[in-house]
C-alpha cells in the first residue's frame, strides 16, 4: 500500500506515533510517582491527595474547555457533583450491591452527559452570544445546588448524604486508584489534544467563522465537547463520593466551580499539566495552612494566586516546563505531516451558481436590489464598483442563507434557502474573505488537515500525518511556496502567506463555486501576480465557477472572463472586460465615487 493510500484508508506507520512519545513518557513517570507515593507520604497527606486527584480530573476537563476550546465555564463543578450524588443516592436508597454499583457507574456518566448536552445546547445554539453562554454556565451550578437543597431527606438537603455503604478499600489502595485514574485521564486527554481531532478543538477557539466555511458546525463541536467532558467529570465525582462516604451541596456549586478556574489559571491553562499542578498544590497548601493558620490561610492562598497571575500570566506550567527542559533536554522530533494528492471523485456536471432577484435591506435602507446573475463553471466573474456598491454584502448573501432579505441562490441545482454556511459548503461552495480568516495557533499543515475534515474525517488518537489535497490546492501551494512551511505556526507567516493559506484551505474542500473577496489585498506585486495566475487557472483549467470582488481594474482585466459592475445595490453593467473598461457609464460612476 502506498503512503497516499495509507493516509486515505486510515492506516498509520510507526513514525506517525512519534508525537505521542512525550505524553506517554510523562504518563509512565507519573504512574511511578503514584505507585511509590503511599510509601513516602504520611497518612494525612495521602488523604488530601486522594481527594485532590479527583478534583484534578475535573480541572483537566475545564482546561480542555477553557484552555484549548476557549470556553470559560463554571459548570464543571455541577457535573462533578451530579456524578457524586448519583453514587451517594443509589448507595443510600438502594443499597450497596453489584447491581447498584453498576447502576451508579452508569448514571454517574450518563446523567452528567445528558445535562452537558442541555447546557451545551442552551449555551451554543445558533444565535447565542458568548455572554449568554457564560450566564448559562453560572446559572447551572446554582440550579443543581438548589435542587439538592430542596430534596429534603432524599438528597439530604443542606446536610448532604453521609454514612452510606461504599467500597471497603484501604487508603493506600484508594491512593493508587485515584492517582491511576488521574494519570489515565491526563494521558487520554493529552493524546486527544495532540491528535487531528484535538487540532479541530483548538481551531474552534481560533476562528469559528472559518470553521463554518470549511463545512464544520462549531456549535456542534462545542456541544459534543461539553457533553463528553461532563461525563468524565461525573465519573470523577463518583470516585470522590465512593472514597469520602459523604457528599454535600457545596461540591456542585458556583464556589467550587470558581475554585476549579483558579486551579487551572494558577497552574497554566492550555497545558494539561498546569491544572494538575495547580490543583494538587493548592489543595495541599490549603490543608496544611488551614490547620496552622486557621484565620489567614485563605488570604495567603489568594495572595499567591494574585502574584502568580500578575508575574506569570500563563501560570506555573511554562516555568516548570523550562526547568524540566533544562534538566532533561529532549530532541526535537521531525514532523510527520506530508502533502499527498487527494482522490476526491471528479464531478461530471458543470459547476454553476444562479442568483435570482436577491435583495438585502437594513430597515428602510436597501443595500441590494433585484440582483440577477448566473455564473457557469470555467468563468471567472469579477464584481467591481465604488465603495458602498454592495459587493461584499452580495458575497455574504451567497455564503449565508440567513443574510438575504429576498430572492434565491442556487448552487449546482441546490437552493441554499436559509441554510447556515457550514451547510451550504456541502453544495460545493468555498469562500475566501478579504482579511485572511485562519487559525493562528495551528501550523500550516494542521490548518490544511482541519480544512479536509469534512471529507476525510479526523482521528481522535493519531497526530497529523499525510494531508490529501486536490489538484487546485496543490497548484496554489506550488505557486506560493507554502509547502515549505508545513510545520510553521500560522501566526508567524507573512501577510501574503496567510492569504495563500486561506485560499489553499478553501480549495482543500474541492469546491465547485468559489467566492473571493479581494484575495490580493495588501500583497506585493509579485504575490499579486502569483495569486492572480492561480485564480485564473481555477476557472480555465479546473472548470470552477469563480466570483471575485476586486477594485483594481488593471488586475481584473488580466484574469477575468466577465466583469459585473455594481452601483447603489444594482447591477449597472454585465459584460466583457473590454466592454466594462471602455464604458463611459462606468467611467462616470468611478469618477464620482471612491473605490473599495
UniProtKB/TrEMBL annotation:
<feature type="transmembrane region" description="Helical">
    <location>
        <begin position="173"/>
        <end position="193"/>
    </location>
</feature>
<feature type="domain" description="ABC transporter">
    <location>
        <begin position="353"/>
        <end position="593"/>
    </location>
</feature>
<feature type="transmembrane region" description="Helical">
    <location>
        <begin position="77"/>
        <end position="96"/>
    </location>
</feature>
<feature type="transmembrane region" description="Helical">
    <location>
        <begin position="131"/>
        <end position="152"/>
    </location>
</feature>
<dbReference type="GO" id="GO:0015658">
    <property type="term" value="F:branched-chain amino acid transmembrane transporter activity"/>
</dbReference>
<feature type="transmembrane region" description="Helical">
    <location>
        <begin position="103"/>
        <end position="125"/>
    </location>
</feature>
<keyword id="KW-0813">Transport</keyword>
<feature type="transmembrane region" description="Helical">
    <location>
        <begin position="223"/>
        <end position="248"/>
    </location>
</feature>
<dbReference type="InterPro" id="IPR003593">
    <property type="entry name" value="AAA+_ATPase"/>
</dbReference>
<protein>
    <submittedName>
        <fullName>Glutamine transport ATP-binding protein GlnQ</fullName>
    </submittedName>
</protein>
<keyword id="KW-1003">Cell membrane</keyword>
<keyword id="KW-0067">ATP-binding</keyword>
<dbReference type="InterPro" id="IPR001851">
    <property type="entry name" value="ABC_transp_permease"/>
</dbReference>
<feature type="transmembrane region" description="Helical">
    <location>
        <begin position="20"/>
        <end position="41"/>
    </location>
</feature>
<dbReference type="InterPro" id="IPR043428">
    <property type="entry name" value="LivM-like"/>
</dbReference>
<dbReference type="Pfam" id="PF00005">
    <property type="entry name" value="ABC_tran"/>
</dbReference>
<keyword id="KW-0812">Transmembrane</keyword>
<dbReference type="GO" id="GO:0005524">
    <property type="term" value="F:ATP binding"/>
</dbReference>
<dbReference type="Pfam" id="PF02653">
    <property type="entry name" value="BPD_transp_2"/>
</dbReference>
<dbReference type="InterPro" id="IPR003439">
    <property type="entry name" value="ABC_transporter-like_ATP-bd"/>
</dbReference>
<feature type="transmembrane region" description="Helical">
    <location>
        <begin position="294"/>
        <end position="312"/>
    </location>
</feature>
<feature type="transmembrane region" description="Helical">
    <location>
        <begin position="53"/>
        <end position="71"/>
    </location>
</feature>
<dbReference type="InterPro" id="IPR027417">
    <property type="entry name" value="P-loop_NTPase"/>
</dbReference>
<dbReference type="GO" id="GO:0016887">
    <property type="term" value="F:ATP hydrolysis activity"/>
</dbReference>
<keyword id="KW-0472">Membrane</keyword>
<keyword id="KW-1133">Transmembrane helix</keyword>
<dbReference type="InterPro" id="IPR051120">
    <property type="entry name" value="ABC_AA/LPS_Transport"/>
</dbReference>
<keyword id="KW-0547">Nucleotide-binding</keyword>
<dbReference type="GO" id="GO:0005886">
    <property type="term" value="C:plasma membrane"/>
</dbReference>
<feature type="transmembrane region" description="Helical">
    <location>
        <begin position="260"/>
        <end position="282"/>
    </location>
</feature>
Amino acid at each position: 500500500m502506498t503512503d497516499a493510500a495509507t493516509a486515505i484508508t486510515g492506516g498509520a506507520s510507526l513514525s506517525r506515533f512519534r508525537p505521542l512519545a512525550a505524553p506517554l513518557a510523562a504518563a509512565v513517570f507519573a504512574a511511578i510517582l503514584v505507585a511509590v507515593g503511599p510509601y513516602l507520604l504520611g497518612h494525612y497527606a495521602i488523604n488530601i491527595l486522594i481527594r485532590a486527584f479527583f478534583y484534578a480530573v475535573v480541572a483537566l476537563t475545564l482546561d480542555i474547555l477553557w484552555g484549548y476550546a476557549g470556553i470559560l465555564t463554571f459548570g464543571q463543578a455541577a457535573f462533578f457533583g451530579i456524578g457524586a450524588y448519583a453514587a451517594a443516592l443509589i448507595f443510600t436508597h438502594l443499597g450497596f450491591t453489584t447491581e447498584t454499583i453498576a447502576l451508579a457507574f452508569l448514571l454517574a456518566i450518563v446523567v452528567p452527559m445528558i445535562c452537558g448536552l442541555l447546557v451545551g445546547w442552551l449555551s451554543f445554539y445558533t444565535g447565542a452570544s458568548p455572554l449568554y453562554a457564560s450566564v448559562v454556565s453560572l446559572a447551572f451550578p446554582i440550579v443543581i445546588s438548589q435542587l439538592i437543597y430542596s430534596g429534603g431527606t432524599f438528597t439530604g438537603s443542606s446536610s448532604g448524604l453521609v454514612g452510606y455503604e461504599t467500597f471497603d478499600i484501604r487508603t493506600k489502595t484508594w491512593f493508587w486508584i485515584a492517582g491511576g485514574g488521574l494519570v489515565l485521564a491526563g494521558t487520554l486527554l493529552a493524546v486527544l489534544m495532540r491528535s487531528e481531532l484535538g487540532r479541530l478543538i483548538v481551531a474552534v477557539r481560533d476562528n469559528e467563522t472559518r470553521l463554518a466555511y470549511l463545512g464544520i458546525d462549531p456549535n456542534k463541536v462545542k456541544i459534543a465537547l461539553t457533553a463528553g467532558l461532563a461525563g468524565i467529570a461525573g465519573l470523577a465525582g463518583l470516585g470522590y463520593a465512593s472514597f469520602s462516604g459523604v457528599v454535600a451541596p457545596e461540591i456542585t456549586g458556583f464556589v467550587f466551580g470558581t475554585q476549579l478556574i483558579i486551579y487551572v489559571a494558577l497552574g497554566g491553562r492550555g497545558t494539561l499539566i498546569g491544572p494538575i499542578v495547580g490543583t494538587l498544590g493548592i489543595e495541599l497548601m490549603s490543608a496544611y495552612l488551614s490547620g496552622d493558620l486557621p484565620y489567614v490561610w485563605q488570604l495567603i492562598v489568594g495572595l499567591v494566586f494574585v502574584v502568580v497571575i500578575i508575574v506569570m500570566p500563563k501560570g506555573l506550567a511554562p516555568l516548570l516546563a523550562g526547568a524540566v527542559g533544562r534538566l532533561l533536554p529532549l530532541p526535537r522530533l521531525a514532523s510527520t505531516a506530508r502533502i499527498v494528492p487527494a482522490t476526491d471523485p471528479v464531478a461530471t456536471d458543470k459547476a454553476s451558481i444562479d442568483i435570482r432577484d436577491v435583495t438585502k435591506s437594513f430597515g428602510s435602507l436597501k443595500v441590494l436590489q433585484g440582483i440577477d446573475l448566473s455564473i457557469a463553471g470555467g468563468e471567472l466573474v469579477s464584481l467591481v464598483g465604488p465603495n458602498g456598491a454592495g459587493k461584499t454584502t452580495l458575497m455574504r448573501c451567497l455564503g449565508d442563507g440567513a443574510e438575504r432579505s429576498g430572492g434565491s441562490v442556487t448552487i449546482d441545482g441546490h437552493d441554499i434557502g436559509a441554510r447556515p454556511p457550514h451547510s451550504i459548503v456541502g453544495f460545493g461552495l468555498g469562500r475566501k474573505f478579504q482579511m485572511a480568516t485562519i487559525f493562528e495557533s495551528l501550523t500550516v499543515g494542521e490548518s490544511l488537515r482541519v480544512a479536509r475534515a469534512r471529507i476525510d474525517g479526523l482521528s481522535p488518537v493519531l497526530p497529523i500525518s499525510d494531508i490529501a489535497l486536490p489538484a487546485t490546492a496543490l497548484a496554489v501551494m506550488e505557486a506560493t511556496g507554502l509547502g515549505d512551511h508545513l510545520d510553521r505556526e500560522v501566526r508567524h507567516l507573512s501577510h501574503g502567506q496567510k492569504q495563500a493559506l486561506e485560499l489553499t484551505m478553501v480549495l482543500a474542500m474541492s469546491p465547485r463555486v468559489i467566492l473571493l473577496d479581494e484575495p490580493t489585498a495588501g500583497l506585493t506585486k509579485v504575490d499579486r501576480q502569483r495569486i492572480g495566475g492561480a485564480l485564473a487557472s481555477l476557472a480555465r483549467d479546473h472548470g470552477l465557477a469563480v466570483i471575485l470582488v476586486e477594485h483594481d481594474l488593471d488586475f481584473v482585466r488580466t484574469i477575468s472572463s466577465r466583469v459585473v459592475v455594481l452601483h447603489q445595490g444594482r447591477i449597472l453593467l454585465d459584460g466583457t472586460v473590454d466592454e466594462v473598461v471602455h464604458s463611459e457609464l462606468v467611467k462616470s460612476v468611478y469618477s464620482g465615487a471612491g473605490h473599495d
